[in-house]
Amino acid sequence: MRRPAVVLLSGGLDSTTVLALARADGYDCAALSFDYGQRHAVELDAARRVAAALGAGRHVVASIDLRALGGSALTADVDVPKGRSQGEMASGIPITYVPARNTIFLSFALALAETIDASDIFIGVNALDYSGYPDCRPEYIAAFEAMADLATRAGVEGGTRTTIHTPLMELTKAGIIALGTSLGVDYGLTHSCYDPVDGRPCGTCDSCLLRARGFAELGMADPAA
Predict the structure, then answer these.
(1) Distance between CA atoms of 86 and 104, rounded to whole angstroms?
(2) What is the pLDDT of residue 87?
(3) Domain ranges in the chain?
(4) Which residue of 17, 51, 66, 197 has the lowest C-beta tally within 10 Å?
């Protein structure tokens, strides 16, 4: 019998790989996506395609309007950085960081996990090849796990320890693509761009550039380009 798990699914390259990996590891996955007022809401269509293609037992789309808070190029009228070098992307926290986003998303995932009696949550955070987001670091994930055991009925009454799986944490973008390809992932279903034009990738935002570099390092063409 497959163990239940919650997988955070944006519809992007990383979260799609994580869903494929969780399924391959024998989990019955409830995919969780968010309509949070993001300028690249087209990613939700990709999430639906991915959830169906990879056999998620359930796909939940939660609506929370983070535009009310702003503070990010993804949720406010602020330009998305374009054409940045690898060095520029590695320096500082970019304006595409959405304040406390992973904390909000993981809180919803924790609530869903309790409702389906799951103690496993999967998230595609990455500390190597991502643009300096503070809520993608191993110490943040460890702190959230500790909080989860104190904050839930399952943790307090049932002694259930929540495990947040971060299988991509130490992989490069090329490594993530190679892993997904070995699992049969069709990356043509995915969407990564922060600032799409008529639903198509802009090709020059940080996310597009990191994705393109990953495919290039493997000598592969990006099927979604």
Answers:
(1) 28
(2) 83
(3) 3-217
(4) 197
